[in-house]
Amino acid sequence: MSNSTQKSSCIVIAIAGASASGKSLIASTIYNELKAELGIDDIGIISEDAYYRDQSHLEMEERIKTNYDHPNSMDHELLVEHLQALKSGNAIEIPEYSYVEHTRLPTVRAFEPKRVIILEGILLLTDEKIRNEVDMSIFVDAPLDICFIRRLKRDMEERGRTMDSVISQYNKTVRPMFLQFIQPSKQYADIIVPRGGKNRVAINILKAQIRQLLGQK
Ligand SMILES: Nc1ncnc2c1ncn2[C@@H]1O[C@H](COP(=O)(O)OP(=O)(O)O)[C@@H](O)[C@H]1O
Ligand SMILES: Nc1ccn([C@@H]2O[C@H](COP(=O)(O)O)[C@@H](O)[C@H]2O)c(=O)n1
Prior knowledge:
- Its EC number is 2.7.1.48.
- Residues 12-201 form the Phosphoribulokinase/uridine kinase domain.
- It is a single chain.
- The protein is 41% helix and 20% strand.
- It has seven helices and seven strands; from the N terminus they run βαβααβββαβααβα.
- Residues 17, 19-25, 150, 154, 196-198 line the site of adenosine-5'-diphosphate.
């Protein structure tokens, strides 16, 4: 539960888990189904990936070497600042990120305060400062081989990667950082969702819990 000292009517749900475990799919399913009940202005999704550190000052060959699965690659300070601003009723500007350029774009996404904010990202539960801002935390538990296959397909189709680069990054950083940081953060989840993004029973339970939390605010 949230340790935030600010009194807020906003509920923050964190969805963590391995890369390509189905976090975005669960987030967008809950978003699409609850927005029909709550209204489009009352629910929103924030991706942790938007908070990768800006690397526009680095050459491309340096950007490629970054370990994007280590907690230090994330500007969690800005994410916490943004969550606190939203809880205080202030709008924020979320950075826009390019997986092709490996840095932030010059553009931002304006985001108004909402009653329900769904956060999704690999490293969310590794950071106590983020955990303190969250009302309910979820860990999506999908087998790593399945995640790898999905990631290979997605990164080649959507993120401008070659098969060799996906395999090399997976062996050098993605898998080791999952084992070192992401998997142990499962202990902080309130709910563990097996089989990833198409677990209908789990999604129904999560929606019911969000409704209950809203009723308590
Ligand atoms: N349970 C599932 N069955 C089949 N495909 C899935 C499932 N969950 C996710 N996917 C697909 O796998 C890819 C990665 O899922 P995504 O939700 O984007 O992962 P994440 O946000 O955890 O990186 C997407 O193409 C998505 O549609
Ligand atoms: N420039 C970047 C930034 C991030 N990544 C990878 O993205 C993964 C997290 O995003 P998901 O949607 O898969 O959760 C993470 O595992 C990073 O390795 C990247 O490849 N390049």
